[in-house]
Amino acid sequence: MPSELLGVNVYNSAERRFEFRPGPVFTHVLVADEINRATPKTQSALLEVMSERQVSIDGVTHLLEEPFTVIATQNPDDMAGTYPLPDSQLDRFLLRTAVGYPAVEVEKRILATRGGAEPVEHIQQAVTLAQLVEAQREVDAVVVDDAIIDYAHAIVRTTRAHDSLSQGVSTRGALAFLKAVRARAIVMGRSYVIPDDVSELAVPVLAHRVRVSGAEAGVGQWTGDGRRDDASRIIQEILQRTDVPL
After folding, report:
1. How do strand 17-22 and strand 165-167 relate by DSSP bridges?
2. What is the pTM of this model?
3. Among residues 124, 127, 216, 234, which is most buried (max CB within 10 A)?
4. Whole-number Å distance between alpha carbons of 31 and 27
């Protein structure tokens, strides 16, 4: 139920008033494993918190602390007991990618070194919350030339007019696209965006935001044998046909 995720007001009989008891969403990193096994009503509970970083319960708004992010996994749509994520929720995820199987050597190393201990229990802190918030703010300072904006916008506009797509990328998706390419520039050690940032992130950022024509078409997932589906292939085709700024 949504209240199990967001929180609920509980009546305190001793003080004769309601008290808000926050749910697990009040955290810095929310991990939603197999998110598409949640019912649509529960999934919709994440819409406000992912967009506004706040939760509204009984007319009262509760703000979340920075930083806040949602990391989710999902099962293939054809698995029993799954519910498709609504477009409005998919649009709130910055990136979508496939983990797949590990490389052969990596998997062999896992098999050879994994004992009874749980590796997650030994993870060490890499950055502080303050450092992470500062890094997020640095993203907004990354320089994006007008030619790069035109390049990214051309890709977005083409998704809206493509014959094989019944739904293109929204303005929210276009803003997320630019935020993602700015972040990639920082990761690559630059304070400015280059065309490669745009082309490298087009599929992870845009493929789950479009809808392929036809009731049985996918929305940016990967097939079981590792091939990209139609949505990702179409985004790649759009990239190939879009002029790259010099």
Report:
1. unpaired
2. 0.79
3. 234
4. 10
